[in-house]
Amino acid sequence: MIYGYCRCSTNETKQDINRQKRELKMMGVDDNAIFLEYESATKLNRPELMKLLSIVKSGDTIVSTEVSRITRSTKQLIDVIELVKEKQLKLVIKDSITIDCTDSKQIDAMTNAFIQISAVFAELERNMIVDRVRSGMSNARAKGVRLGRPALTVDKIPSKVLNLYDRYRDKQLSKTEYAKICEISRPTLDKYISLMTDK
Questions:
Q1: What is the pLDDT of residues 21-44, one digit of tens each?
Q2: Rg of the Cα trace of the chain?
Q3: Does residue 108 contact residue 114 with C-beta atoms inside 8 Å?
């Protein structure tokens, strides 16, 4: 069985994962065998990756478009490689490397070194991005720029929420009904209610 793994750091409204899916399909992965994840590559407990690694059996293949889709951590990549060896799997990284441990095949020293070097550079790239972001934020603070979301005020509350508040306060609407009619989440409604109660 051939399985594919796609990953983006943020959700589908901010990053398009479809390019990875298209590439995996071109590499022979069926649509229903592709695992999609919206998590940071540095996060150890990624549910979809963990699910994939738990169901693969000897002789199966895992395909990904880049090493950094699986992880940006050298240690975690080494752990994945150990699992590939242990379960006798095949790991294919598009246009890059193939590790074939099916039929008890061993990874040659050159491939093993290349994989670990790839992971080191992926981790380095990620750390450099984090450093640039931190530096940019420090610079912005030094210039007096206020970071983060602007404070929520009553005038920012949607009119529909304001118009229905009296009905909610008079117990004509439950909080769940109130949120549903206004098409917002309960936590967001709680913030609005807190402001309207204090006004």
A1: 999 999 999 999 999 998 877 777
A2: 24
A3: no
